[in-house]
Amino acid sequence: GGGGGREETTISIAAPFDNNYVIPAGVAFYSLLQNSDPDYNYNIYVISGDEITLENKNLLYETINHFNNAQLKFINMNNKFDTLFSKTNAKGHYSKEIYYKLILSSLFPNLNKIMVTDVDVVFMNDISDIYNSFNINEDNYIYAPIVIGKNDPKSPKCKKLLKKLNKMYSKYELEKLKWAGGFYIYNLKKMREDNIEEKLIKFAQENSSRLLQPEQDTINLVCYPKIKTMPPNSLVCTYAYTMFNQESDYHKDINHTKEEIVFSLNKPIQLHYATGDKPWNCICTKWEIWYEYIIKTPLFNTFIKKLLNKNKYKILFSIKIPLYKKGFSFIKHK
Questions:
Q1: Average pLDDT of span 279-283
Q2: Which residue from 144, 183, 146, 149 is spatially nearest to 271, judged by alpha carbons?
Q3: How many CB atoms within 10 Å of residue 218?
Q4: CB 241 within 8 A of CB 206
């Protein structure tokens, strides 16, 4: 990489998740490291509510040991925010780890900047450019994406959601709920200067019963308007691939042009499996990309064994993978 201080050659990444998400996390980390500029050093911090088991830690170490420019560190939060999570209405497919996104400025007092990511993702392109394009001297707390395909106010799904949102949020609040929460870059220095963490925690605690996407809504509402928008291809949700089937569909997205949408679908930086359907438990949109990555990792064996034990006595699925001449089936016999 170019000259400059240590800060510029190391990229710090925070990933909050629990023991249930170790295999997806390994895939996320492997894909990130494989697609990112090798001139950087990557420090990955796993932040969990309970201790990650030794077996799981070893799986993750083994996965990133493939890269000599990455380090893995584990931070156990000893069930912090258990009570807050128990009061949270919208649990969906979340866990208490989502709330650790609110306290990174005190968790990393020596860092000025950190990337935060969910782990139900695959990285398909380099993150270093985006990381560098966020300047901590700007007047912004976070750098966040506005996802494509979520904004057609006329669609039945959107109407239903808006109805729900209108009950829970004021019109003034709704205007601020624009940015997605799967991929952020934080300006930790400015967050500390303006005491943002305290405001985030207070807001999450006071509003836990009404927030629909708890930590994402908290971050949007507290950090607004000091949020810089990432390029639209930074985070692409898998559902976007099913939304643009004809010319008129491009005009329904009120935040992005057709050119931006086409570019983003073709060159996503982070591909996010954003609904309850995940490639490790069903055949969902873009599941095959996740498999292309897991097959390259040491996680594959553990994953297949778990899958076979979970689905006894049936053909699970057959997959044709670009790297293999023959397709193959995972079968469990009686």
A1: 93
A2: 183
A3: 26
A4: no
